[in-house]
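re: ur question from yesterday

yeah so i grabbed the chain u mentioned. its 241 aa long if i counted rite. heres the sequnce exactly as i have it in my notes:
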Amino acid sequence: MINKEGGIETMDLNKLKEIQAVVFDMDGLMFDSERYVQKSWDIAGERLGYGHLGHNIVNTLGTNLTNRKKYFLEHYGNDFPFDKFLDGYRDAYYELVEDGVPAKKGLHEILKVLREKGLKIGVATSSSEEHAVSNLKREGIFDYFDSVITGNMIEHGKPKPDIYIEACRQLKVDPSKAIALEDAINGIRSAHGAGMNPVMIPDIVQDTSKVDDILFGKCESLLEFAEILQGVTLDIEETQK
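ran it thru and got these structure tokens back, copy pasting raw so excuse formatting
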């Protein structure tokens, strides 16, 4: 839970010292991709005659394709052509990001800090394996990660805890000794349900009031989290001396 001192949100440093692993969400957390997704939904919606649909992204952030389809059918009717919409927004998205998706501030810095401290590093993203691996390799950071779990590898997507449970299992760490970095409320709930310590770094949705009571911490950017972690001597570092 967040401790508030003088209006400044800080993490429990004693608990932070016990951390053995950090697991990253991807879209909106490592890469500034959600705005491109939002724009691609607008484009695809217009082409199908539904107008701009990008505003729906705030209700589906962090969810997998199955839950996203369920959302659109519930809100636009069972005759909503989701498969055509899917193909359309994917085409539009890749046109928009032809030159690559910008990395979020502090991405490279936090990965270097985690490696220096000897922590295990994982990814738990609702995106497909192909999309995730492509982004990580294009940015030159794929080799930092000990495990990459994607939406197509698990049965139940976020906000269910399955993906983070599997991430911790593959990293061979107790969830209570791991931090999940997330930009989406669904992801925070997923990580908390898995027994992890969720840290929110807001992106499109800035209001975190729905999950403030289950947050381990909240940062403005990955860079801020890197700076916090850099200033703490972890238990795992003590054992490596």
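noticed a couple things. The two ends are 31 Å apart (CA to CA). also Residues 34-96 form a domain with the DNA polymerase; domain 1 fold (CATH 1.10.150).
anyway ttyl
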